[in-house]
Design a protein that fits this description.
The chain has 4 helices and 8 strands, in the order ααββββββββαα. A hairpin with a 6-residue loop joins strand 3 (78-81) and strand 4. The protein has helices at residues 2-24, 41-44, 157-166, 170-177; strands spanning 46-58, 61-73, 78-81, 88-91, 96-102, 113-124, 127-139, 142-154. By secondary structure, it is an alpha+beta fold. It is 25% helix and 44% strand. It has a single domain, classed as Beta Barrel (Porin).
Amino acid sequence: MKDLSRHNRLFKSIVFLMATTFVVAVTGCGGGGSSSGGGGGAQFAGTYQGTYQMTMTGGGRSTSGSGPIVIVIQPDNKVIRDPGSDNSLGILTGNSFSINNRGSSLNRPGVSCSGTFSLNGTVQGTQITGTLSSTNLRCNGMPLTITGSCNLQKVPTAARAALLDGGGNFKEFLQNAVR
């Protein structure tokens, strides 16, 4: 009974952290990302804006949320998520990219996470579609699963500056959810 109460409190804290993170930034998925590849950047270069939907499951419960996301594809094939916030980075290969983040990027006082969470995207014309996922993600020992999707549309150059200053909220949502 005591262990169940601890898991319920942790899950509620995780949900709160997730919700707050979604509301505060503008993203695609958390900090310190990596990827590999090449090709396609000049063709797809630009700023893309849209929304993501995500569900986090753990401890016998789940919570869902959605929010804004911004992705910038540079001519040198770098793909940046959350440009005004955590600058998670991936590399465009052809028309696909992956941004992988360490679970430890969600750490806060009293919260210790491991594993990874990722955004995998495909560019088609002026649109990006993507999936959100996690691998062996654990926070304070509790296994967590992230699933979701995102859809973005390329924005005109004139609208780009305001989006880049705004950042994203995916990572913040997750940090608040695992608090």
